[in-house]
Amino acid sequence: MERQRHDTVNRGSMPARRHWKCWLGIFFALALPRQGLAFAIKKLVRAIRDRKSSPEQVSAAAAKLRDEHLLEDPGDYRFVLNTLTKRTAWKDAVSIWDEMRWIGSELEEPDFVLAISAFAKGSHWQVAVELFQELLGNRPPHLSLGRHREDLQADLRAYTAAIASCKAAGAWQVAVQILQDMEVASVTPDVVTYNTVMSACEKGRDYDAADRVFSEMCKWDISPDKVTYGTLIAACGWGQQWQTAVAYLRHAQESYFGFDMFACTAAISACAKATQWELAISILNERGRLLKGASVRTYNAALSACAAAGKLELALILMEEMQESGITPNFMTYRYAIQSCEDSGCWELALDLMAEMQSVDIEPKQLIFGSVAAACRSAGLEKLAASYDWKVSPG
């Protein structure tokens, strides 16, 4: 009887063991491909992160993640979106954002911030602002694209990202409006926010608007930084406020930050726009700082002052100093140097400079041909001038 009961128990357990082994086999069968998939995803993400990856490799990795729907976790989407945006691969970042919306991911505030930044990198500032309005709840989401929590709220990062999207386009009115909306929403701007709004005003060539933003910033006791003064000084140039530009430069140097090449370059440019060439050159040369950080942009700003005043000899001296300092001239360098030849009628020198720029693979454009024509015309060489006029307006 005992033997029979023992056999029954053994026989009853055999199917159970087989059943357990079957499920174990299924588990490993499913887990192994999943492990391989996880490895493939990590490899693709690594390719996107790797600074050695070419733009083509980054795009290929992003396309594979998107087209094969390999990402599932919202955090993974966010990580890839952030990495692509930082690498300025904005088209690929936008494609990942579109994928998030297409599969119905529940979107969070950081997702909107990253998408806004991606569209801004691609100069699609209107789309970026529309996304920001959707985040605020002022614009309904597209019915077929994604979803997000109803309690989402825009924070400082979101407002600053939206303002930054307006910067490159010079859409300062929209940037200022978003800044004003922050006060209504009880979101406190910081120095970066104000700097970004002022930069939008500068890009929009509106000094008065930038000055008003700076005044508001001071009213709230937010301390300016180097970027603040550099941006303000650059805005002064568009308003012919060269005295104010120099005053801001001196104030920043004496009270806050010492010597800053960006601010100096902006001040030189402001003086150049007002044809204050002597002051522009003095800022460039003061305290022997000429060779301690001056860039091609700094020299070009000074050269533009020479061009506006027709100071050819000084322009040539600056070009020589550039080359002695190991700074390579660019298109704008030659443009201003050749423009300096116009009033004096130094047409041969203008042609020599144009030949020199071609020898270093910088192609002359209409601005160059126009200056060469003007130099020839000043020398009374009307026929030669006409030949370059034709290149300015062919046909």
From TrEMBL:
The yes or no answer to whether the keyword Lyase is present is: no
What PROSITE patterns does the record point to? PPR (PS51375)
Provide this UniProt record's keywords sorted from A to Z: Repeat
Stored InterPro entries: PPR_rpt, TPR-like_helical_dom_sf
Positions annotated as PPR repeat: 190-224, 295-329, 330-364
The organism's superkingdom is given as Eukaryota
Q: Which PANTHER family match?
A: OS03G0856100 PROTEIN, OS12G0638900 PROTEIN
Q: Which protein, by its recorded name, is this?
A: Pentatricopeptide repeat-containing protein, chloroplastic
